[in-house]
Amino acid sequence: MELSIVEQRKSELEKLVSSNELDTVTRKLMDFVNDFSINREKRKETINIKAKYNDLRAEFRQHGSTQSLESRFTKLRNQILDLIYEIEDEFNINITYQNEVENSFKNIKEETKLSHFEQAREEFKKKKQTIILPQPTIDNIDVVFRGKELTKVYIKSSIDFSLKPIDIELKYREITALVGENGQGKTTILNMIAGELLHSSGEICYPELVAKTTLDDYVEIKNQIAYITQELPKWRGSLKDTLHYTLSSRGILGKGNEEEVDFIIHRLSLEKYADATWKQISGGYKMRFSLARAILKKPKLLILDEPLANLDINTQNLFLTDLRDIANSLKNPISVIISSQNLYEVEAISDNIIFMSDGKALYNGTIDKFGEDREENTFEVNLGVSKEKLLTVLESIAYISVEKDGQNYLINTKKEVIDKNLLDCFLGQGLSVQYFRNISKSTRKLFGRL
Questions:
Q1: What is the DSSP letter of 397?
Q2: What is residue 429's DSSP assignment?
Q3: What is the CB neighbour count within 10 angstroms for residue 277?
Q4: Using CA atoms, how far apart are residues 161 and 437, in angstroms rounded to an integer?
Q5: Using CA atoms, how far apart are residues 393 and 400, in angstroms rounded to an integer?
Q6: Bridge partner list, 409
Q7: Which of the four pLDDT bands, split at 50, 70 and 90, describes residue 157?
Q8: Would you state the pLDDT for residue 210?
Q9: How far apart are CA 5 and CA 7, in angstroms?
Q10: What residues form DSSP beta bridges with 147?
Q11: 5: part of which helix (H) or strand (E)?
């Protein structure tokens, strides 16, 4: 029997608790409660749990493990599990209640005979709704943005670049990675999607943002798009105050404003710098606060241009993990498109990928389909030996070609050659494997190729 979504998420959290991955589970717990609970007090409880974990972690780093500390960690794990089960029960009860109400209402409607006047009014309403808000076609379900045959030609003679025709479709709960070398059209595409740059030809529509797309709709469209550019604009005042202002500009004031800001600050682990100013935080935290501000706007489309450029490896991984979880939200569905030079990292969390070269897409499709029809495997390695030595070592392997790429080699082999074959070959020859990656299903293979 297939598990329901709440059971799947519960099972994931249980496994994280069991493996003692409390940093991850405290963040995912907040998403779980936000998606499946209507009780605002439960959201506060997740904030308290995360704060407790932060205190325990700080104490562990300072004093190491103690019996008292382990006892409090155990208590925290039990508190997390109790809350998970409470939310699951609450969700199931709400679903049962909603079904009962809907069935009762349906029975009442069937038993009640409308008067001729009421029937006429109902028919008029249906016709009016059909005219003003046409039902979306099946192709439009969950599609936030669609661009067909989009092009961009710069008419200034100093800019020798044109974007070739490209089709792009962005859906709820999907992350699309836009990759390629610099100057290949990635930012041009993002600016057109965001409505910051007019396309030269092609068609653009936002099926999930408005019922119909005309020039008059762009104010409504822009209000549902969050665009985090590579050059982040400076904030004035404290970071927390700016987040409060962001919500108040949406008409959310008072206690609701306080709760929402507090929740997003803890969810993105920004508590330490909430009262700091823009100049007092690193580039990594500036990007995370920009993400917090974007999320508070409740966008349906999130656009990010090179957000990983100034982040260290740990901050990159945390940022991308949070981005994946945010995209998966049930309560506030969102579509994400991200451009980045960190190819392997964004491939790991993306559903779709678009690889740009010289203004055209060399690949535009799902991650899992890339390389599906390949006839060879490709490995990226660093062994600290000359190419001549490597070719000698590879004589026992069915290799096709070897290319030097910076400090690494790209080794193309027949498809039946797997990771173990190559590693056994290298280690058997006494070579020190400094770096090894199978890139047979990564768009890394497309860099430098036309």
A1: S
A2: T
A3: 15
A4: 34
A5: 14
A6: 381, 404
A7: low
A8: 74
A9: 5
A10: 168, 204
A11: helix 5-18
Sheet holding 143-153, edge to edge: 162-171, 143-153, 201-205
Domain range summary for the chain, segments of one domain joined by +: 5-109, 141-369, 376-446
Q: What tens digit of pLDDT does each residue of 196-222 get?
A: 999 999 999 998 887 555 556 778 888
Find how far residue 32's CA is from the centre of its chain: 16
b/e for 18-35, b at 16 or more Cβ within 10 A?
eeeebebbbbbbbbbbbb
Coil, strand or helix at 278: helix
Q: How confident is the model at residue 101 (pLDDT cuts 50, 70, 90)?
A: low
DSSP label at residue 281: S
Where do we find the tokens 């909430």?
274
Confidence of residue 177 (pLDDT cuts 50, 70, 90): very high
pLDDT of residue 121: 54
Strands 360-366 vs 352-357: parallel, antiparallel or unpaired: antiparallel
Largest CA distance in the chain: 91
pLDDT of residue 103: 58
Q: Is 3 left (phi over 0), alpha (psi -120 to 50) or beta?
A: beta
d(CA 172, CA 208): 9
Q: What is the pLDDT of residue 136?
A: 39
Structure tokens that stand for 152 in this block:
């961009």
Q: How far apart (Å, rounded) are the C-alpha atoms in residues 242 and 106?
A: 47
d(CA 143, CA 179): 21
pLDDT grade, residue 310 (50/70/90)? Answer: confident
Q: Strands across the sheet with 175-180, in order?
A: 225-228, 301-305, 335-339, 175-180, 352-357, 360-366
Nearest C-alpha neighbor of 194 from the set 55, 335, 291, 33: 335
The single-letter code of the amino acid at 313 is I
CA distance 225 to 241: 22
Separation CA 17–CA 26 (nearest Å): 9
Contact, 318 vs 307, CB < 8 A?
no
**CA-CA distance, 24 to 86, in Å (whole number)?**
20
- What would the CATH number be for the domain defined by 141-369? 3.40.50.300
Best CATH choice for the domain 376-446 from the list 3.10.129.10, 3.40.190.10, 3.30.70.100, 2.60.15.10: 3.30.70.100
| CA trace torsion 31, 37, 43, 45 (10° rounding) | -110
